[in-house]
Design brief:
The chain is α/β, with parallel strands linked by helices. The protein is about 40% helix and about 15% strand. The chain contains 8 helices and 8 strands.
Length: about 200
C-alpha cells in the first residue's frame, strides 16, 4: 500500500494535490506520465475515445519536442496536458536552479500550469519555487504499470482496491509500460464504471 497509495505523512511533507475533493460524487481522474510516445500514446487515445473519456497527460518536454504531432493530437482530442520536466529529472541530486530551469524549458513547449515531478522525487526548495508558477499534482493511486514483474491483472486489482472518490490515478504512456498499460487500462476503466465511478479531468 505504501507504493500504490502514499500515506498521509508523505502527502503532508510533499505539498501538492494528491486527491481531489468532490463531496457527494464518485469521480476519479485518469492521468498519464512520460509521453508522448509513438508506441503507446496513440493506442491510449483510442481507448479513451472508445469510452468517451478525457484524461490529463503529464508530458516530458523532450518527447514533446521529438513528437510534436502526437502532442497536438492529445490536445486536439480534448485532453489536458501538464509539465513533467524537460528531461524527466529526479529532483533529488539536482540543484534547485537546474531543476527549475528544466521545468521552464519544458513549459516553453507544453504551456500548462499543471506540474508533476517525475518519480515524485522533488526537494522542498524546488517545490517552493515551482509552486510560484504551477499547480503541483501528485497522485492518490499509482498503478505501477511500469513494473515488468507485474501482470496487467495485478495492475487492475491495484486500481480496483485503492480507487476512491477523488482519486488521481497514474498510468504511463511510455515504451517501458506499453504492454501492461494497453492491456490493463480498458479493464481498469470497465471495473471503475461497474463500481459506479465517473471520470473527470484535472484543471
Amino acid at each position: 500500500m505504501f507504493i500504490e497509495q502514499p500515506p498521509s505523512f508523505v502527502r503532508l511533507f510533499w505539498k501538492g494535490i494528491w486527491r481531489m475533493k468532490r463531496a457527494g460524487e464518485r469521480t476519479v481522474y485518469l492521468t498519464f506520465d512520460d509521453g508522448p510516445c509513438p508506441t503507446t500514446t496513440p493506442q491510449i487515445l483510442e481507448i479513451l475515445r472508445r469510452y468517451q473519456l478525457k484524461a490529463t497527460f503529464f508530458c516530458v518536454g523532450d518527447n514533446v519536442r521529438k513528437y510534436p504531432e502526437l502532442f497536438e493530437q492529445i490536445k486536439c482530442e480534448g485532453h489536458h496536458v501538464g509539465n513533467h520536466t524537460m528531461h524527466h529529472l529526479k529532483g533529488f541530486g539536482t540543484s534547485t536552479e537546474t531543476y527549475c530551469r528544466d521545468v521552464a524549458e519544458a513549459n516553453a513547449l507544453i504551456h500548462s500550469r499543471l506540474f508533476r515531478p517525475p518519480y515524485g522525487r522533488v526537494k522542498p526548495a524546488q517545490l517552493k519555487e515551482i509552486r510560484k508558477n504551477y499547480t503541483v499534482v501528485m497522485w492518490d493511486v499509482i498503478t505501477r504499470d511500469y513494473n515488468p514483474k507485474l501482470s496487467p491483472e495485478k495492475i487492475v486489482r491495484i486500481v480496483k482496491k485503492y480507487a476512491r472518490n477523488g482519486s488521481i490515478i497514474v498510468f504511463h504512456d511510455s515504451k517501458k509500460s506499453s504492454a501492461n498499460t494497453l492491456s490493463a487500462l480498458p479493464q481498469a476503466i470497465e471495473a471503475l464504471l461497474v463500481k459506479g465511478f465517473s471520470f473527470s479531468q484535472l484543471q
